[in-house]
Design goal:
heterodimer; A: alpha+beta; 5 domains; seven-stranded mixed sheet; 24 helices; 20 strands; about 55% helix; B: alpha+beta; Alpha-Beta Plaits; four-stranded antiparallel sheet; 2 helices; about 30% helix; about 35% strand; globular
Chain lengths: ~625, ~70
Amino acid sequence: MMKMTKGRIVLISGLLAAASFVLKEMIGYEKITIFLMLATTVIAGTPVFRKAIGALRYRIVGIDALVTIAVTGAVIIGEYWEAAAVTFLFMLGDYLESRTIEKTRSSIKALLDMAPDKARVRRNGEETEINPEDVVKGDFIVVKPGEKISVDGTVVEGSAYINQAAITGESIPISRAVDETVFSGTIIESGYLVIRADRVGEDTTFARILQMVEDAQDKKAKTQKFLEKFSRYYTPAIILLSIALFLATKDVVLALTLLVIACPGALVISAPVSIVAGIGNGAKQGVLIKGGEIMEKLGAVKAVAFDKTGTLTVGKPSVTRAEPVGISEDELLRIAAVGESYSEHPLGKAIITTATQKLGPISETPEDAEILSGHGLRFSLDGTTYFIGNRKLFTENGISVDRHESYLQSEEKKGQTAVIVGTAEGVCGIISIADTVRPDARTLISDLESRGIKTTVMLTGDNRRAAEAIALETGIREVHSELLPEDKVRVLAELRERYGSVAMVGDGVNDAPALASSDLGIAVGGAGKDIAMETADVVLLSEGIKKLSYAVGLSRATVRNMKQNIAFALLVAAFLLAGVLAKTVTLSFGMLVHEVSVLLVILNAIRLLRYGETKKAGTVLSSEGEIVGGQM
Amino acid sequence: MTNRTFQLETVSCPSCIAKIEGMLKKTGGISSSEVLFNSSRVKVSFDENVVASDEIRSRIESLGYRVLSEK
């Protein structure tokens, strides 16, 4: 309603101002001309005068007060046209600014609008629609196609394709079925789910992300803090100057003009509009950058350190190669999978996963199975006794692996863990297992280097061989292996000495101290990892690290945009000041320049909303839409 | 000491911030305040024995900014 009124005031006063201008040119300052000008001033000026009086009650002199004084002064000395033009321009500027500034905030607003607004719960066999805030932990939620999931929870019934863009910035739907985790704010595209609510309301990942984005947009950049201090002195200084000028020259028009340009509108607005647009752009892409100062830091990073497991790698071991001896590969996998179904070892799980993918579900069960801790296991299948495990297991049972020693060593050199499968007669195959490198890691490392990042470093607690193999595969330059968490902190300090600003990228599971001690902590995969999300400065919400390069680029673009705005605003202020003192800038022209400069600053910030849209179109379409929910 | 956040209608003019901040500074019982431009929110810590939150709200509104909600 407010907006409509504002728009109407602008329209009516604009028509009146135009009519009075035509009359002034045609018949000069006749009574009717002056009447129209005064009408314009009163209509456009009333809201301004009102605000000025409101503020004066608390003895605050804002721009409204300055404009009011200037306009009143202009009317008293008979400058009716100036008074009309100044008030109209001020209202028009105000109107256009509020319209355009909403645009800079549009990305964030779009995110806030994604919050779920209803939930269909199933209680005592009956389904009712309620407010998501009234859902309690343990409730069963029914969600149908096109509807939004309103809780973080576990699927207990049904299966569906889900768009997780609200949480990860990835819009490619992923499939979710029984026992898998789903998140609030995500949308079911097809299928249907019944979900048990594990986290509700403000505890959901989505609610936390929203809160952090809301907080981030007003965390000030250093440049911004400096500017605010500057403008705090600037306005009073100009007021004093105009009073001094009036006393010295007795030139009322000059003093009034100076008053009108006294508000550093464009200067004060220059930084916040850039930052809100930049943060909004990031949030839309699944990159949460926590404030202006972080933007400045991320843009200035010289070295990037990565944790290995879970960051550069997927974090889950998988079978990379199965080398059978005398039997088929399928047979080798089947035997190993049957045996491993008895163990809980992560390497065993990797074998079972691969075997099930290739051969379908494994139904057989091992007989007489026994875990031989630190070695492997022994079991019987179809009357044959098998061994699965490492070298030690075989040598201690008198089975020679010498013939395969060179193969074993070459696999181990590549960072693989070699699992030997055999019988009392000899080896029947070797399965290589490794944590796989993320498909986007190599591209990211080269992207970062092309953006001028001086070095990329890997920090890992793992052994040197495994670390070096991963470094080779990803193209990472420097490797520090076999580190304890406190060693990571020390290495980061060394890196800072050498390169200046260092960012640390981790998945937050065991590198919280490193994330906290670096200049800039970047957490990968926000969903379900609350502590990492809260402590990190930047959160890559989508699982995967490919967005890091975009985040660096976005930060630099934002800082650049902010600096352009500041430089422009300072230039305009200097120009206006000089122009007023040289008496070439009139009251209304000063107001015009002031309003136009504010608008230009906002329009420049709006450009940031489109950052990365065309250039990154290719990389956005990758298959990595998954977020890790299993780690909760 | 009580903390409150007031959500205002969209604040678009930069001088609004200075005005609201200046008013809050001159209001007794308020120990710290912050006007958040981009999210159009005002965060205030104040002593409830000296000034009520309704009073702060009406003072903000008297400057011409509608308070949409508070928490």
